[in-house]
C-alpha cells in the first residue's frame, strides 16, 4: 500500500493524525516505530517516547526508511501490489520537515503478522511502500522481526469460566493485564496528562482523550495540574474524574448540552454528531472504569446495556415513564384504544414524522414504536458513537461474556451505612485512637459521635459525605479512610 504523507509540523498530534488517516486500521490498533539492528532484525524503537518529529527522524534508517508496526498482533495489512486503480500521481510521499524546510523522503514499511500459524518468532511478512522515484513499484519481501514483545491472548471455555468467577475488580484487572500483554506494555508504564488548572479539567482531558490511542488508554494515568505543586500519581484519580464527569454533565458544548436534563440520556443533533462527543464519552467511560476512576452514576444505565447487550435487555417504555410521563400515558392509552388522536398527531409533528405512515401502524406496535423512537432512535447516532468509544480496545465481547449486569450492579450500587463504614481502616483507626492512653477515651467518644451522626443520614447524603472525604462516592475506595490526631 503506497501512501505519501507530508508532515507539516513536528507535533505528536499532527504526526499521529497523518499516520492513522492514511492507515485507518492503526487508529484502533495503535502503532509504533520499529528499527533494524546490524543483523537486519527489527526491534520496537522507543515505545514509550512521544511520537513527534524528533522520534520519526531518529527512527528512520540511514537510507531514510521508516518502519512502523501495529501494536496488536495478527493484523493483516492489505498488499495493494495488484491494485492498478492507484496511479503514481495518487501516491503522496511521507515526508518530514527539518529546519531548512527541505523535504526528506522515507520508505515507510508497515509490518503485519499475516498468518499466526506460520509465525515462528523471527519470520514476519511485511509490505512496504517506497517513493524514491515516481515509477517505483510496490514490493513484498521477508525480514527478521523480533516479535517477542507481542503476545496473543487465547480464549477457551476454561478461561471464560474462570473469568466469570472473578469479582468485578478482578475482572477489571484481568482486562488491563490482557491489554498490556497484547500491546506489549511493560509493567508500570504510565502516560502523563497535563491539565492547566482544575477549571480546565474537562477541556484538557477531552482534548487528550480525543487523540489518545489504545496504548495511552491502558497505561497508568499520571495527572499533572500545571498550576499546582502536586502531581497525582493515582491517589486523586477518582477525585479528578469525579470533577470531570460533573463538568461533562452540565457543560454546554457545540450544539448544547450532551444529555437530556432529567434522565441524562445522550442527545443527538447535527452539531453534536459532527463533533463526535459521544465517542469521546465512550472512551472516557472505558478509561475511567479501567483505572478505577469515578463513574457517572447519573449516566442512564440503559445506554451501556444497549451497546453491550442490545435493546432487548431493557424496557424503553419503563424509561419513557420516567423521562416523559405524559407521552408514556399516551402509549398506555393507545394500547387500551382509549387515546386522543390529536395528542398523537401533536407528537408526530413535534418529531417531524410522516402522519400517514405513523397512523398506519397498528395500535400495539405503535406504542412500542413511540417508546423505541424516543429512547433509542432519536439518539441512535450518539449511541453508535458511544459504542465505538467504549469498544475502543475491542473488549465489549469480554463485558458481554462476563456479564455486564454484574459490573452495572457494582457501578450503580446504592451506598448503605455498612458500605460507608467498610471504607474506613478500622485497624489503623483503632491504633490511632488508643495510641495515647491519656486521650484514648476522649478520642473514642468523638469517633463514636461521628458514627452515630452517619447512621442517621440518608443514602443520598452518605454519598455526599463520602465524596467530601474521599473525592468520590464510588466504592470500594482505592485507599481506605484513616483518622488522624493532630493535637492530642
What would CATH call the architecture of the largest domain?
Alpha-Beta Complex
CATH superfamily membership of the largest domain, which one?
Hect, E3 ligase catalytic domains
Backbone structural class: alpha/beta
Low-confidence stretches: 74-107, 111-157, 231-235
Instruction: From the 3D structure, determine the CATH topology of the largest domain.
Output: Hect, E3 ligase catalytic domain fold
Provide the fold topology:
Blueprint (H helix, E strand, L loop, with lengths): L11 H11 L2 H5 L1 E6 L4 E5 L7 H7 L5 E6 L24 E2 L7 E2 L1 E5 L11 E7 L9 E7 L11 H8 L3 H15 L7 E6 L5 H11 L2 H5 L1 E6 L5 E2 L4 H14 L19 H6 L1 H14 L11 H8 L6 H8 L1 H11 L5 H10 L4 H5 L3 H13 L4 H11 L5 H7 L1 H8 L5 H6 L3 H9 L2 H19 L3 H12 L18
Parallel strand pairs: 2-8, 3-6, 9-10
Antiparallel strand pairs: 1-2, 1-3, 4-5, 6-7, 7-8, 10-11
Helix pairs in contact: 10-17, 11-17, 12-13, 12-16, 13-16
Protein name: HECT domain-containing protein
GO molecular function: ubiquitin-protein transferase activity
